[in-house]
Amino acid sequence: SGRLDLVEGLLSREDGMNINVQGAKGQTPLMQAAMMGDIAMARLLISYGADVYEQDFEGWTALGYAVRSGNQELVALIKSKMEALRIQR
Prior knowledge:
Serine Threonine Protein Phosphatase 5, Tetratricopeptide repeat
């Protein structure tokens, strides 16, 4: 989709944006994608290093938002990334 291409273009720039930038409520782009159940965007953001452990100002993580969205594939994606990071430690 055009939106994914635009975001990927911004992320791939040498002076690219901070992928974990927090908005007014402390939500990151990954949290926003999880909230909307947007697995394609979440997959893209994770592939560029989005922090799956980041918390917003209320303590919510992308996983919490994914669970709340009801998208089980998205929940599995985020859990898989968390497990991969846990194994690397």
